[in-house]
Each structure stands twice: as structure tokens, then as C-alpha cells.
Design goal:
351 residues; 2 domains; two-stranded antiparallel ribbon; 73% helix; membrane; nucleobase transmembrane transporter activity; Uracil/uridine/allantoin_perm; transmembrane helix
């Protein structure tokens, strides 16, 4: 039967079936986020082990196709560690960091549900670094295997699983890829903005409403245009976003660890008279640090190292302004803390 009619209709230069798949994919993610954080948690619980099983199965299949791990990893091409390699390596690394920079800033949206401090520390320490390292290793090894079997490296997992001859294996692989994409996108790109929008106007915007707004904005930026060119997506989009978010991370680190020494006044966070209100709710030191860090990370001479430059620059500027030009409330708090500490030492029994 001739099924060429399926892809005959073109909409915006793409088959209508592609737009239908995109719409279904979008609706699935909206349904999960409307389920609430409990829905997100359940998806993550199921997705994580299946992603691990699927990755290992893909690696084993590719090794069998290549005739073992030895032929799969063997290469006639010597490694080139010259300037060209490093010129590509660091911008690529910044792109990878930029991809995860969102989650580094809104990880508290997840850890807030941990039962204890120990639980969130263990979860982050054992969950993220180990799994990311393992999946990166699997991805590199599978790609090396495709180069050995098909005489060219295939990076896209969809194209890799398309080479499978087993119908059941192909369906399982596609299911795992889709589940991994959905779970990752919901956790990294929907939860954070949903909470941020809800916090802007809690009376008007709930978590679910914020998620819906984010979902529509995600379509309005035309993500398919970003993915048309890998160089634009990795080195321009992710590099720029990563550099800007690196500046935000630098401000948070400097403020929490150096200026406040890990001490947070929780009631003051919700008071206009508290130490965090600054000038009408704006801390000009953080704004200046963000502007400098973002500008250097995007348009500076070292923009290829965007995330690192943004983080270091904003970290340094925010610490310096907070240290030498502190807010008057901060001065009073530091003075009170010093007095209490001195009084405590005076009251200590001598031995």
C-alpha cells in the first residue's frame, strides 16, 4: 500500500505528522505538570530506572553489532589534542553546562520536599553526578560503536535505534527515549518557571497556571528553529543562556556563602521592612553584578567560556559591592551579630 500521502501535506516546511507528534508530546508534558509535583515525582521514579536499563541495553546491542567492546572502541584515527580540539571542547562544555544551568539554580524546587537535610544531600550526591557520568559514558561508547559499524558516528539516539532490526527492541528503545525526554524536560524546564511565575503573583498565578504559561511560551520561541542548526543551538543559544545563568549562580554563591555566611533570616524574606527589601525590593549590587557578568559572558573576549566567565565575574563584583558598599540594614545586622558573639564569649565559663 502506498503511504506517501502521510507525509505529503507540508505545514511550515515540515510534514503535518511531525506537527501532530509535537502537539501530542506537548500535551503529555502539560498533563504531567497539571498533575502537580506528585505527578512529576512519579514520572521521575519510573523514568530513572527505565532510562538506565535502556541505556545499558543500547550499549550491549551496539557492542554485539560491532563484534565486542574491543572493535567498538578501537580507532585508526590518532587523537588530536591540538588547538583545534580545545577550541571546540570548551565552547561545547559550556553548552552542556548551559543545558543544566537551569536545574542548578532551581534545584531547591525539588529538595524542599526532602524529609531531612541528609536526604537531599544524599539524593543530589548519589543521584546526579553518578547518573550523568554513566549516561555520558554510555553515549560516547555507543557513538563510537556506530562509527565502527556504520563507518560514521551517529550522535542522535533516534537515528541509532532506527538501525535496529528487532521490532520489539525498536519500540522499547523509542519508548525509553521519549520517556527520558519528557521527564528531563518537565523537571529541568517546566517546574522552575512554574514556581517563579507563581511567586510573582500568588493570588493570580498558581503552580499549574505558571506551568501552562511556561508551556505556551515554550512554543512561542519556536524551538524547532533553534534545533535546525546544531551550531546555533549549542554555541549560540545554550552558550548565551548558560553565561547569563552563570551570572545568577555567581550572585547566589557570593551572597549566601561569603556575605551572609550561610545565615538566612526566614521571616525577613517575607517582610518589606526586613534586610532583604533593600531599595524598594531591589538590590542594586546584585543588578550591577548581573549586568557585568552577563555582558562579559555573552559579548566579552572570553565569551566562549561563557558560564565560567559569568559566574566568576558576577561572584566577584557582588561580593566586592556587598563587602565594601553594604546596605545599611546589613551593617546593623552585622553589628548586632558581633555584639551577641562578643557577649557570648564574655559569658563563657573560664577553665
Amino acid at each position: 500500500m502506498d503511504r506517501g500521502w502521510i507525509n505529503a501535506g507540508q505545514v511550515g516546511g515540515n510534514p503535518w505528522t511531525l506537527w501532530l507528534s509535537f502537539a501530542l508530546f506537548w500535551l503529555i508534558q502539560v498533563a504531567i505538570i497539571l498533575w502537580g509535583m506528585e505527578g512529576v515525582r512519579k514520572v521521575q521514579v519510573w523514568a530513572a530506572p527505565l532510562m538506565l536499563v535502556g541505556g545499558i541495553a543500547l550499549l550491549v546491542w551496539m557492542a554485539s553489532e560491532a563484534g565486542g567492546f574491543g572493535p567498538m572502541l578501537a580507532s585508526d584515527q590518532p587523537l588530536d589534542w591540538g588547538p583545534a580540539f580545545w577550541a571546540l571542547f570548551f565552547p561545547s562544555l559550556m553548552g552542556v553546562i548551559g543545558y543544566w544551568a537551569t536545574l542548578t539554580l532551581n534545584i531547591s524546587d525539588f529538595t524542599r520536599f526532602a524529609g531531612t537535610q541528609r536526604a537531599q544531600v544524599l539524593g543530589q550526591s548519589l543521584g546526579l553526578p553518578t547518573t550523568m557520568t554513566l549516561f555520558s559514558l554510555i553515549a560516547v561508547m555507543v557513538t563510537a560503536g556506530t562509527a565502527a559499524v556504520y563507518e560514521e558516528p551517529i550522535w542522535n539516539p533516534i537515528y541509532v535505534v532506527n538501525e535496529m532490526e528487532s521490532g520489539i527492541g525498536l519500540l522499547f528503545a523509542i519508548f525509553v527515549v521519549l520517556l527520558a525526554t519528557v521527564s528531563t524536560n518537565v523537571a529541568a524546564n517546566l517546574v522552575g518557571p512554574a514556581y517563579d511565575l507563581a511567586n510573582l503573583k500568588p493570588k493570580w498565578i498558581s503552580f499549574r497556571t505558571g506551568a501552562l504559561i511556561t508551556s505556551f511560551l515554550g512554543v512561542m520561541i519556536f524551538p524547532w528553529k533553534l534545533l535546525e542548526d546544531e551550531n546555533t543551538y549549542i554555541f549560540v543559544w545554550l552558550g548565551t543562556v548558560g553565561g547569563i545563568l552563570g551570572a545568577v549562580a555567581g550572585i547566589l554563591l557570593a551572597d549566601y556563602w561569603l556575605l551572609r555566611r550561610t545565615r538566612i533570616n526566614l521571616p525577613a524574606l517575607f517582610s518589606r521592612e526586613g534586610e532583604y527589601w533593600y531599595s524598594g525590593g531591589w538590590n542594586w549590587r546584585a543588578l550591577v553584578a548581573f549586568g557585568i557578568g552577563a555582558a562579559l559572558s555573552v559579548a566579552g573576549p572570553l565569551a566562549s567560556y561563557g558560564w565560567v566567565i559569568g559566574l566568576v565575574a558576577a561572584f566577584t563584583v557582588h561580593w566586592a559591592l556587598g563587602r565594601f558598599l553594604p546596605d545599611h540594614r546589613m551593617r546593623a545586622i552585622e553589628s548586632d551579630a558581633a555584639e551577641r558573639e562578643a557577649a557570648g564569649r564574655e559569658g563563657e565559663p573560664t577553665v
